Amino acid sequence: xxxxxxxxxxxxxxxxxxxxxxxxxxxxxxxxxxxxxxxxxxxxxxxxxxxxxxxxxxxxxxxxxxxxxxxxxxxxxxxxxxxxxxxxxxxxxxxxxxxxxxxxxxxxxxxxxxxxxxxxxxxxxxxxxxxxxxxxxxxxxxxxxxxxxxxxxxxxxxxxxxxxxxxxxxxxxxxxxxxxxxxxxxxxxxxxxxxxxxxxxxxxxxxxxxxxxxxxxxxxxxxxxxxxxxxxxxxxxxxxxxxxxxxxxxxxxxxxxxxxxxxxxxxxxxxxxxxxxxxxxxxxxxxxxxxxxxxxxxxxxxxxxxxxxxxxxxxxxxxxxxxxxxxxxxxxxxxxxxxxxxxxxxxxxxxxxxxxxxxxxxxxxxxxxxxxxxxxxxxxxxxxxxxxxxxxxxxxxxxxxxxxxxxxxxxxxxxxxxxxxxxxx
Length: 425
Hints:
55% of the residues lie in helices and 17% in strands. It is an alpha+beta fold and 425 residues long. Strand 11 (407-412) and strand 12 (418-423) form a beta hairpin. Helix 10 packs across helix 12. The longest helix is centred in the N-terminal third of the chain and has 40 residues, at 30-69. Keywords: ATP-binding, Kinase, Membrane, Nucleotide-binding, Phosphoprotein, Transferase, Transmembrane, Transmembrane helix, Two-component regulatory system. It comes from Spirosoma oryzae. The chain crosses the membrane at residues 7-26. InterPro entries: HATPase_C_sf, HATPase_dom, His_kinase_dom, PAS, PAS-like_dom_sf, Sig_transdc_His_kin-like_C.
């Protein structure tokens, strides 16, 4: 039972007893009886006033607690003139002012942090105490290619994304450089932070693909241009001297040898020019194209070379047009390089399949699988598994597809088929 309730019951009970005693003692003397009743009524009114005085601070406290429970920090009380109550009001108003300032400061910081996370070029996923995703910034949504609704309140395994499953298996608190099959490279950090005394996880994913490719192209491009410049200058001068001296040679065999050397120099000059062109792939000139036409033309073009190798080439395109904004010449050259590589991996009796659907183009072959040690280096410049290869075919393919904004991968699947996949939005 509350104190004020007990006090009120005590006050009423005490005055009832006193009234009964006064009646018993002075019932024969009306003057004294009336006087005692007046005194008791005055005492009762005084007790009631004291009850209200005791009750007022409780009312203020109750109103303040209700406002705090509702997170309303704008309610303040005005002084009443009662020194004790006013002291309580002063302390409450001071506390409310501090809480309001802290709440405003926290809201401003949270707003700034939210804007910073949304604008960050680094993907961020935040998990709750049970390991479910509670927050994902726009970069994470783009990287994982999942709508926000498909990420929130999901466990990483429930999202069914190979990148996310791989990243969550990394050791915590240690930044890791992760390379995917193809050209994707990421810097990943899985770490924890404390929230209300308990640890929660977050995942930072920084995509380094474009940055590394740009640095790589600047490095080898400078070397190639320097080499091409020096070789071309030297070959021009040497060929000029050799062409001048050739007619003066009395021996026909010497003249033929000189011409062979001149031709070889010219081919070397052309070779260096082609190498230099690798780093100068022009931006795509986009037109609206039906990819079915490109795929079917490449299938026909690569049919005769496949026939010589006794390799079957099949083309599977949908009945409806697959429209895409792309540079037709560059896209055709890309597809020719991909099919050519697929044929070179095959032997007699193998197959190469070109499959097109509205969102994807795949070139599949069941020839020699990709060696495991090269699976993550296929698009490295000048890397070739062929004795006579120069390692620039896939590099050109990579640059053309990146310039178009397509995503792609090349890997041997568990069923033994090697698949080059190109995807677009």
